[in-house]
Amino acid sequence: QVQLQESGPGLVKPSETLSLTCNVSGGSISSYYWSWIRQPPEKGLEWIGYVYYSGSTKHNPSLKSRVTISVDTSKNQFSLKLSSVTAADTAVYYCARGRYGGNNYYYYYMDVWGKGTTVTVSS
Amino acid sequence: SYELTQPPSVSVSPGQTASITCSGDKLGDKFASWYQQRPGQSPVLVIYQDDKRPSGIPERLSGSNSGNTATLTISETQAVDEADYYCQAWDSSTVVFGGGTKLTVL
Asked: Which of A36, A111, B17, B56 has its CA 20 to 30 A from that of A62?
């Protein structure tokens, strides 16, 4: 059974870059999409972006160009970098496996989620 | 950008049926998914492709999607169903979440 585990610093200073890694165990990272989602305290879910195992990516336009998502198939993991962070980036960050497909209409949903990691932006 | 709208809260008595709606422009022309998030836990996929249930999700949970509205229906509601529920769709190659609905089982 596939399991995801997020890792990275729990505290990041304002204006610096947040870096997280998601380790995929129990299955291959190949042939799937891999997403990052975050949840600020007491708020809803916000999709950050995804990476396909081939390396192609897409991110939430609201985050502009601050997001970089990459994949390392040799290590069966993918990563998130979010630059120029502010207090508004304080959140629980989740990684998740995405399933994509369809014909005339396309679907994307996330069927396996990590436990999440809390990141606080503060000096 | 595409938006999905959910009611902030829904209340239901134990044993009754709860319906949580998710509205978006021509949402019926897209596929809707639903996630359940219990307090302090990660989200769990409960419905995908409008009306499909992942293995392990009870038949009491069902989904539908037509017109501008997707609906998650929970029949014979139990205390264990008390959670936040999020709808999600795929639009212009991006993932869109609804704002979430807190289901309270009174």
From this structure: A111
User: Is B86's CB within 8 Å of A44's CB?
Assistant: yes
d(CA A67, CA A13): 17
| Residues B40, B25: Cα–Cα separation, whole Å | 32
Across the 123 residues of chain A, what is the mean pLDDT of every consecutive 10-residue run?
96 98 96 96 97 93 92 96 97 97 90 98 97
Out of A46, A58, A98, closest to residue B97 by CB: A46
- Are A59 and A51 a contacting pair, CB within 8 Å? no
Query: Strands (DSSP E) along B24-100, which ranges?
Result: 32-37, 44-47, 61-66, 69-74, 83-91, 94-97
Asked if B7 and B72 count as a contact pair (C-beta separation under 8 A), the reply is no
